[in-house]
Amino acid sequence: MLRRTILTSMGLAAVATGISEREAAAQDKTLQAGRGMKSPIIKDVSVIAVQPGGVRLVVVKVVTDQPGLYGYGCATFTQRAELVVEAVEKYLKPFVIGHPTDRIDDLWQAMYNASYWRSGPVLNNAISGVDQALWDIKGRQAGLPVYQLLGGKCREAAELYTHVNGADNARLIEGVRAAQAEGYRNFSLGLGQGGNEPASGKVLTTAPVFDREAYLRDLLKMLEAVRSTLGDEIDITTDVHERITPTQAIRLCKDLEQFRMFFVEDPLSPEDIDYFRILRQQSTTPIAMGELFVNPHESTPLIDERLIDYIRCHVSEVGGLTPARKIAILAEMHGVRTAWHGPGDVSPVGHCANLTLAVSAYNFGIQEMAAFPEASHEIFHGIPLVKNGYGYPNEAPGWGVEVDGKAAAKYPFRNDNTERGKLNGGWGELRLPDGTLIHP
Ligand code: MG
């Protein structure tokens, strides 16, 4: 109606000023482009907190003042999930209600600065929930999947890797063959380490035990067995989980050169980050790092000095799609590729964000993606397709995900009798045989 009024007045203006109908129509288009679309305004923010399998997922829903226009964002920090729920409900909700949804980076900066002390996993996840919901809303408004808003695809789908762990080498090789039959070509291989061992002469703790030198010996033997049985064609990664000392990590990366790893993940902890410079000078084994970063700027020195090959931040832990795409662009300029963290404690919405970055960033490396439990399919409609070892972002507008509220209500957080249930979703301890605590 408004448009017709404008056109009519432009038409009359055309007659009055003597310009042609065509010129008037062009001027009308310029006027409309300059004015832009009406900004949706944030009307409500709510949190969907669910535990469809072993892990707790947190998803934020942002509702606008425009009928039927809303979006979802992943805010999953499973070990401290209830704190993220509070951060969204008590702080971000009152802060963002009334703001327009269409200035995503502007609102991201406002949320990031609103706590004065910035960053950290709880606040970043809360921000990510709103941030990703705004990208979902923008995609829904445009009628486009979010990857189109980032410039479109650089590739048809994202090459995935899958995890295979085995109690012994024979069972691990069996596991790789089973995954190959499903279409996977890339494998993150792990040993069945960290079990409870009865206290003995050597073991002075009843907590799960990690023996560093035994791990290093077993890992090399396992890789020898895998390469000699399965050949050179498969791509292999392994996650050190920052459980060894810096000098052990340097020795390991040198020892692993013979196995032509796709990458070694987290050989050093964020606390030992300065060792990357020394590691880089001594080994050609490709390095992946970033899963534990909780500040969008933590990646900068590693990328800037080209000390790693793959940046693998957990997108919601660094604050959402907005900072993650900046990290990806910085990485591209330095020859570093992406391998976003994609375990089971990322919601299907978060996996859509990962796949969106994976297909739209030129410097994509590989993507980790978890299988979803049955209950996740009941709650989340539009879980992205995995086929022949590739992950596909949805083609529906936004993330292409809908949450079934009734199904979600069936799977609240559980404080059951499992170890993680008793720890309210948190992780337990891992210790050296003498009882020294190390990274879990
Ligand atoms: Mg990892």
Could you provide a short overview of the structure?
By secondary structure, this protein is of the alpha/beta class.
Label this structure with key terms:
3-stranded antiparallel beta sheet, binds magnesium ion, 17 strands, 10-stranded mixed beta sheet, disordered N terminus, 440 residues, alpha/beta, TIM Barrel
Q: Can you lay out the helices and strands and say which pair or pack?
A:
Elements: H1 2-17, H2 21-35, E1 42-50, E2 57-64, E3 70-74, H3 81-96, H4 104-114, H5 121-142, H6 146-149, E4 158-166, H7 169-181, E5 186-191, H8 212-230, E6 235-239, H9 246-255, E7 263-265, H10 275-282, E8 287-289, H11 300-304, E9 310-311, H12 321-333, E10 337-338, H13 348-360, E11 367-368, H14 374-379, E12 380-381, E13 385-387, E14 390-392, E15 402-403, H15 405-409, H16 419-422, E16 430-431, E17 437-438
Helix pairs in contact: 1-2, 3-5, 4-5, 7-8, 9-10
- Residue windows where pLDDT falls under 50 for at least 5 positions: 1-14
Structural class: alpha/beta
Q: What fraction of residues sit in β-strands?
A: 15-25%
Q: What is the class of one domain in the CATH system? A: Alpha Beta
Approximate shape: globular
Q: Name the CATH homologous superfamily of one domain.
A: Enolase-like C-terminal domain
Discrete helix count? 16
The main pleated sheet reads as: 10 strands, mixed
